[in-house]
Specification:
The complex is a heterodimer.
Chain A (H helix, E strand, L loop, with lengths): L5 E6 L8 H14 L3 E6 L22 H6 L7 E5 H6 L12 E3 L1 H9 L3 E4 L1
Parallel strand pairs in A: 1-2, 1-5, 2-3, 3-4
Chain B lengths: L1 E6 L8 H14 L3 E7 L20 H12 L3 E4 H7 L4 H7 L10 E4 L2 H9 L2 E5 L2
Parallel strand pairs in B: 1-2, 1-5, 2-3, 3-4
Classes of the chains: A alpha/beta, B alpha/beta.
Chain lengths: 121, 130
């Protein structure tokens, strides 16, 4: 199984409240272990996943902000954030916990067209 | 064409599983191949044989089992998602000290690597979810 495909994980939901963000990260790490060309896109409330300073003790849920910082250790460095989703929520790249590439929705759409597999969570 | 399907939502609450089932049936009828159907997130709840809907409603779980039997479908339930939600086969029952199992016929429990492999092997991976 030597084929390498471009896998993009599209994260659309807030980090807590539903389990999608956490279970998305679990697949991302497996895809990296399979040595695929992995990238992550964050759109809509998904941009909140990267916001600095998750505090989850009040909701008695395990926080996973640190996992985003660890993605680099798995050679996952392509993180794309939709500028319009950021702006709509009063956020900038400085509010995020990891380095990302901020791009317009149209640019992100073009990038999606170049992917082999799109998984949206 | 070779398809793989990913189902991210449970039965009845959400249409994802119904749509995926109808898509699979239509694709097979047209002579396409379904490489694998992968159940993730609450989608793992499509794999419990204990489901008992009212008699005049569709039985989503049995429908999948029947389709798998007819077409030798490979239906895989994510192990980590299944453990969280109480979907259990013989192996998992033994490993985790559970007193029963509930995995429906035609399904098997395995890892997320099976999803990535499906993405690699299939021409198209189609996601059904919210």
């Amino acid at each position: 199984m030597s084929d390498i495909k471009k896998f993009m994980f599209v994260n659309r939901k807030a980090p807590y409240g539903t389990i999608y963000a956490l279970e998305s990260l679990e697949v991302v790490l497996i895809a990296a272990a399979f040595e695929q060309d992995v990238s992550l896109a964050f759109i809509d409330d998904g941009v909140y996943q990267l916001k600095k300073g998750h505090q989850t003790s009040g909701i008695e849920v395990k926080g996973f902000e640190k996992t985003y910082g660890a993605l680099e250790d798995y050679d996952i460095t392509k993180l794309y954030v939709d500028s319009e989703s950021l702006a709509a929520r009063g956020l900038t790249a400085d509010d995020l916990c990891v380095p990302v590439e901020v791009m317009s929705r149209a640019e992100l759409g073009k990038l999606m067209e170049t992917q082999d597999v799109l998984l949206s969570f | 064409m070779k398809f793989a399907l990913l189902i991210n939502e449970g039965p009845y609450t959400h249409q994802a599983s119904d749509s995926a089932y109808l898509f699979a049936k239509a694709a097979l009828a047209k002579g396409h191949e379904i490489f694998r159907v992968f159940f993730y997130h609450d989608g793992v709840n499509n794999a419990t044989r204990l489901t008992t809907p009212p008699q005049d409603d569709r039985n989503i779980v049995n429908r999948w089992s029947k389709l798998a039997e007819e077409h030798k479908l490979d239906m895989v339930v994510c192990v980590a998602a299944a453990q969280r939600r109480g979907i259990v086969d013989d192996g998992e029952a033994k490993r985790n000290g559970k007193d029963t199992t509930n995995l429906a016929p035609g399904f098997r429990i395995s890892g997320l690597g099976q999803l990535i492999e499906a993405g690699i092997q299939a021409d198209r991976l189609v996601v059904f979810g919210d």
